[in-house]
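S.,

Sequence below, as promised.
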Amino acid sequence: MNNTKLLQHLVILLVLAVFTACKQEDSPKNLVHSVEEFNKAVAQAKPGTVITLANGVWQNAELLLEGNGTQDNPITLTVEEKGKVTLEGQSNLRMAGTYLHVEGLVFKNGYTPTTEVISFKKDKNNLAHYSRLTECVIDNYNNPERHEPDTWVAIYGKHNRIDHNHLVGKRNRGVTMIVRLNTEESQQNENHIDHNYFGPRQNLGSNGGETLRIGTSHYSLKDSKTVVASNYFDRCNGEHEIISNKSGKNIYKDNVFYECTGTLTMRHGSGTQVLGNVFIGNNKPSTGGIRVINGQQTVKNNYGVGLTGYRFRGAFVIMNGVPNSPINRYHQVEDAIVTNNTFVDCDHIQLCAGSDAERSAVPVNSVMENNVFYTTDKKNLFTVYDDINGITFKNNIISPNTTPLTENGFIQEELELKANSNGLVMPVGLPEGIGASLSKDLATKDNTGVNWYSKKELDVTLNSGNTITVDPGLNSLVEAVNTANAGDILQLEAGGAYPNTKTIIIDKPITITGAKNNKPKLFFEKKSLLQINNGGSLSLSHLVFDGADSPDRTGNSVITTSKYSMNKNYKLFIEDCEFVNLDVNHSYDAIRVYKNTFADTISIKDSNFKNITGHIMALDRETDDIGIYNAEYVILKNNSFTDIGGAALRLHRGGKDESTFGPFLEMEHNVLDNVGYDKRNKYEAAVSLYGVQVVTIANNIFTKTEGINTHLVVGEPIVNVVNNAFYASDKLTVTGDQNYNAANLWELEPRFIDKTYSLESNSPLKGKGTDGKDLGLLK
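The prediction came back faster than expected:
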């Protein structure tokens, strides 16, 4: 071989060597395809080892990453391609050791077989320290049992970082992310939680729906020293406490709370700093800001706008404490510093909130200065429940229309409001050192979480799909619902007959509508016509539901929920419908719900109910009296209820827990005629309420009907029963808390023209409504 050919061979070999090296560099390190291969790789891991999960679905994969890396060479668990590796079924991850790095995992389509999806511990003696969880996703990974608790991310150990993760759609009981302090190894941990996207969390309807909790009451006198910074909380609506701080010396800074109901709550622990956070309510119900409890808390440079919550979920709240408080109750507010905060167009600033015989320790040695409380149309922004002499007020600016809280410490001043570079409406022209000065680089939906997993809303809403015509005929509606897509609208033929021999399963949002002036009739032979299952919501309009063909047995209903736990909230809207002949046997309900189901809204408007042996709806299946209930918003407007054996409404929320929002009841312009007298109506009332938080019963007519019974407990319920007529009927009975408003309850004969309940021209109920209209139905 001559020198030229030798040189050519050497060049070829060199190129092949470089190419092979590059290919090896590009290929994943320690690519594993099964749990067995993963366990083997972990057993052999040393500092610098990278273990890569192969693309695909990892079903029922319980992973334990255990080992000790170094600061410069951690042991890494990653994925072949981000977004193409999912852990499904009953999967989870535990971490134990030091300098571990986990990246790119996605948990979906299942739930953890244990109490934690991702845990920074193997067991109580083996924790993770100096470790990082980044760019991981947990998406709707929920136990199907609504009140079976679990936690998505449980943080133990010290000096860990949890950042840029995407956590969305927690629906069952349990905190989304928790920092545990149950051993000394986890206390004073200096963990960092930053740049995470906490996506929408539905209302749980009970305690246990926090998005983030640091500590527990048992360890609340211990310091955690955790930093929570630059996270985005998007419609986290699980319960009153979006964040539940239950330990000392934590820092919450530069976080954004978007349309979240509840507050960042300093529930336990002292020395907490709440700095530079943003709360955007957009005037959504129950949106709140910051709640202060305990000693040495600092609230500085925060901003709130459009927050509507009141009492414990106000825009800003300082609580009363319990003298010599047990560790799990409310410690007195002492040495609080509240300075340089700005609240724009918020509804409620609450001081000494929760004051009662137990919570009698007022705030002491505290200061509120250099804040801005500006509202363009609210006079009584501040609510004071007790003695505020322990709070010093200095240089706080309020709008000219707002009543000053004290003689000194508040300056009424007209301010100009302008949107800043982040789109937040801020006062301009403030004196130096007054109000909030926010970071220019706020957390957003786009710069938190991961950039390779969509934040697009997947839940389909009612009335968002196609309109489909359904011809009359046997089970034609059953077939139409089965083949419809989520959000579709099923249009029934005017005057058509729709007999059904099967129960129609509603497991997606569906609208069924008819013709207003010639309503189609729906008949059914099963125990129920419509059954709302998990994932379902239902809108009904311009229909007649006739129970004449239903089976001769007790316990029938037109609409029912699943008998089994539903971890997705549902909505039910009924408008301009008729429910008739629900009397083939006793205890025939219009609507029946079951335990472990929860409605965001049940709304019935412009509808008629006649000849029904059971209840219109009994929302009382949560009988454990631990603060759980069946529906958040219940709306009854402009309906007639005629010859109803049971109650028009039973709404129950038992227990004394104060972590929830509702229930809320609006009952206006209805007529109740001969309602509630069946011997099986154990409530002995036409309307029976227990523990309902906000009640408006106005402009109704009760004629020859049982009355209203309501029992008031916890939460300082707001009850207004006004401008109602009771003819030959029982009136209002209130037990429990006696702080309620009842006025203009008239014993007057309505003088109806006929069974359409129109009033005669000389009826004493004409124009008697709070709105200046007639009592009863609005024609």
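Residues 3-26 form the longest helix (24 residues).

Coffee later?
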